[in-house]
Write a structure and sequence with these properties.
Two copies of one chain form a homodimer. By secondary structure, the first copy, chain A, is an alpha/beta fold. Chain A has ten helices and 16 strands. In chain A, the strands form two sheets. In chain A, strands 1, 10, 11, 12, 13, 14, 15 and 16 form an eight-stranded mixed beta sheet that branches. Chain A has an eight-stranded parallel barrel with strand order 2-3-4-5-6-7-8-9, surrounded by four helices. In chain A, strand 4, helix 5 and strand 5 form a beta-alpha-beta unit. The N terminus of chain A is likely disordered. At the A-B interface, helix 4, helix 6 and strand 10 of A face helix 4, helix 6 and strand 10 of B. Chains A, B: One of its GO terms (biological process) is putrescine biosynthetic process from arginine, via ornithine. Chains A, B: This is ornithine decarboxylase.
């Protein structure tokens, strides 16, 4: 394993993670998280975001050590559920730093959040505003709007947000219910690799913003959501330059917004995590197959859900790196035929690879541990260790 | 809710499940399993399978009450992992009734199974046979073969099995390692709705079987795997007629096989389960949208993973059934844009549906509870209650 600052495929090596796994045996796949890197990422993003408030998207990785690290750094939190709110509070987060950012909330969970001191809620529909007004009277709300697809690696569906022409209706309705509509939110799309890809989305939202203000709505909050990328092998802007560029575009298009929120998740934790896993079987299906099949002890149902559609190309390291390689179809250990990680674009792995060999999966601190199934095929959920 | 034997869409009503959920509030989505129906399904399948041995595919639903019910009925088990073996043993299964059917096994898990008294293992590659020979010396093995796609609703990938021309090499290799190669296994594909769809697959395997026997291999075991269907709204053969038809085809093509194994999973438990869930939000994205969005408190990451690609159409019942309906896009509660259940083919639901309404999702006893994530977005895994 290289100890230098970057390796052949351009990854920064993470000596702390490499040292931790090098000295240990793991009985099952284990995600190791370096909270020091999470803190570094927070500072790098904050340096670019300036006065904007960071609300870490807890869903990316809710390990308590990540939450407590970010509390110490001064971060706020974007919570998707009562469970995530309880987690943040249990680690010492002040309730006013937690926004309840899910637009789909049960009345009893809104009531819980209100009692716990959460003051800010997302909404995109009349019925949601009614639930908030009834269960968190007087709360601050921001309206999520749908934006047209950007250049994100995974543009979002229309699941979240209202159409632009409905924004003012919802702002008025919120006021009529006794709520305090503060502003707007949107999401540029997960893994938006370059800041310049934000320009169309920001322009769409700015038109809505200025129209609403011109109509008399006193908007003071702009929640720019997430989309801050991680490095998975394709070029991305670095975190500080990226964030500064986005904020510069925000200032150009929106002017002086009193309160900007940003919700990085993946960009905060992906490169802070490495999974130590194991080869379980290497085989060829027939004598003439060019591709081997390599089966790991981790798959789509035990942490690597984001390989669905081969969307994310995790980088894989073995102790045989440097030996001659050949193409492999990579699959997980479960008795489920869809538990295949990479098949359309096979991965190059050493020809000498065999059962028992350790593999390290890099930059997988985001959206792995919680996507893990509770016990599919009798395999336990992904083990997580924070260092 | 109808109390009659069938409802408008042709489902058998399940009075025990309906009565159980009718009298209760659930704080979160809850799968209710009637083990009496599991026992009925076992008997219905067994009546058609005759002398064939049933090994329930534990991965379909590993609830301990299902395992103990099936032990009492005389079922064997197909286990995918050490965890599933431990589960079956903990409920009182005799080890010789449990086959370790995953072709991808860690050496230490094979050793564990061997110590626990498991005598029968699946394999499809040299390296797997070597691991079995080393960690379970003298074990019985069956070789899984790849078959070409059948008429199954979800034909399998090539993840499992070896090509037909490799079977005899592997049988010879197993013998050379001191193992006892007993026979062959295959899988016709999940949710193969009609028995007649087995004919091509069975013919393929029979050719391999007879060739191997002609070459001197004393094959005594044929594992016909799973594929036994559940009813999700499209017609399927009933379990007894289906199983009897499959066995008749087996006899025609293979002759008198001393030991036939079958591994029903979905067909054993799907219709024994019903999920009680809740509408969280109903909205329209714009004034002109024809479709409403209906958000439930259960989605792809909390139990309904098999809606991926809209593969399974779960049937949904509400207390407003009978009122005027309109098309809905159905989505889950998480802050994840892929957590959409049905969008390409919207579902018809009552126009009066609103937040707080209970929905019942029928025939979802298979592949729900264990596909559930361990806590994505802070939502707990699917709750399961056995009655």
């Amino acid at each position: 394993m290289s100890a230098s600052a970057t390796d052949a495929v351009g990854f920064f090596s993470v000596p702390s993670l490499e040292a931790y796994v090098a000295g240990r045996d793991f009985d099952r796949p284990t995600l190791v998280i370096d909270t020091g890197i999470v803190a570094q990422n927070y500072r790098a993003l904050k340096a670019g975001l300036g006065e904007a408030h960071i609300h870490y998207a807890v869903k990316a990785n809710p390990h308590p050590a990540i939450i407590s690290t970010l509390i110490a750094e001064g971060s706020g939190f974007d919570a998707a559920s009562r469970g995530e709110i309880e987690l943040c509070l249990s680690q010492g987060a002040r309730p006013e730093t937690i926004s309840f950012g899910n637009t789909i909330k049960k009345p009893r969970d809104i009531a819980f959040a209100h009692r716990a001191g959460i003051i800010r809620f997302a909404a995109d529909a009349e019925e949601e505003l009614e639930k908030i007004a009834e269960n968190a009277p007087g709360a601050r709300v921001y309206i999520r709007v749908i934006v047209e697809p950007s250049g994100a690696d995974w543009p979002l569906t229309r699941k979240f947000g209202c159409s632009p022409e409905r924004v003012e209706t919802l702002l008025d309705y919120a006021t009529s219910l006794g709520l305090h509509p503060e502003g707007l939110s949107f999401h540029v799309g997960s893994q938006t690799r370059f800041a310049k890809m934000w320009s169309d989305t920001l322009a769409q939202v700015a038109r809505i913003w200025h129209a609403a203000r011109a109509a008399g709505h006193d908007l003071t909050l702009l929640n720019i959501g997430g989309g801050f990328p991680a490095f998975y092998g394709e070029a991305v802007d670095g975190p500080t330059a990226y964030s500064a560029d986005v904020m510069s575009r925000v200032r150009d298009l929106f002017g002086n917004v009193p309160h900007v929120m940003a919700e990085p998740g993946r960009g905060m934790v992906a490169d802070a995590g490495m999974i130590a896993a194991e080869v379980v079987l290497v085989s060829r299906k027939s004598e003439t197959d060019l591709h081997r099949w390599v089966y790991l002890d981790i798959g789509r149902f035990s942490g690597l859900a984001e390989t669905e559609g081969e969307a994310i190309r995790y980088q894989i390291q073995t102790w045989r790196d440097g030996e001659e390689t050949g193409p492999c179809i990579l699959a997980g250990p479960s008795c489920d035929s869809v538990d295949v990680l990479y098949e359309k674009r096979p991965v190059q792995l050493p020809l000498g690879l065999r059962s028992g060999d350790r593999v390290l999966i890099r930059n997988c601190g985001a959206y792995t541990s919680t996507y893990s199934s509770v016990g599919f095929n009798g395999f336990p959920p992904l083990e997580v260790v924070a260092i």
